[in-house]
Amino acid sequence: MDDSYSIANLEELGDMFKKLLIILEKEGDYEVKYAKTVLNKIVIDIENILLNTNTINLTEVFYGIIQDYKSLYPPKSGLTEFFIWRDDYNERVKANKNLDDLKNNIKKIIGV
After folding, report:
1. Cβ contacts of residue 109 below 8 Å, gap of 6+?
2. Distance in angstroms (rounded) separating the CA atoms of residues 79 and 102
3. Where exactly are the structural domains of the chain?
4. CB 79 within 8 Å of CB 33
5. Tens-place pLDDT, residues 7-27
6. How far apart are CA 13 and CA 62, in angstroms?
7. Per residue in 52-67, pLDDT tens?
8. How would DSSP label each residue in 17-66?
9. Rounded distance, CA 33 to CA 82, Å?
10. Which residues contact 100 (CB under 8 A, 6 or more apart)?
């Protein structure tokens, strides 16, 4: 686990998790219900932590976020197999590239 986590990382993650949650709410079906629940929990946790940053241990906070995020990637469901469908191939590629970029940016910060 990385010891160089910062409040700025936490704020950035909060924004990215909100964007991912919006995508799942708009594009997902019943198969992403668990993922939406976990993402909503992460967003709320981050918002609450950011209200009082004086007493937080960032390593512990990020450890919890990492564990929750990893739970979104079981072998055959969740975000592992989630993609955005568009009838138009070019629109589908663009939408999924944005999704993949978002997930990759999250992974860069949390180190998974």
Report:
1. 9, 12, 13, 16
2. 12
3. 7-110
4. no
5. 999 999 999 999 999 999 999
6. 10
7. 888 889 999 999 999 9
8. HHHHHHHHHHH--GGGHHHHHHHHHHHHHHHHHHH--TT--HHHHHHHHH
9. 12
10. none
Q: How far is residue 76's CA from residue 15's CA, in Å, rounded to a whole number?
A: 27
Q: How many residues does the chain have?
A: 112
C-alpha span between 98 and 104 (Å, rounded)? 10
Separation CA 79–CA 111 (nearest Å): 17
Cα 5 to Cα 27: distance, rounded to the nearest angstrom: 31
Structure tokens at 36: 């939406």
Q: Output the six-digit token pair for 35.
A: 């993922």
Token pair belonging to 27: 């594009």
pTM of the predicted protein model: 0.91
Calpha distance 105→109 (Å, rounded): 7
Q: Is 105 helix (H, G, I), strand (E, B) or coil?
A: helix
CA–CA distance from 61 to each of 15, 18, 94, 99 (Å)?
16, 17, 33, 24
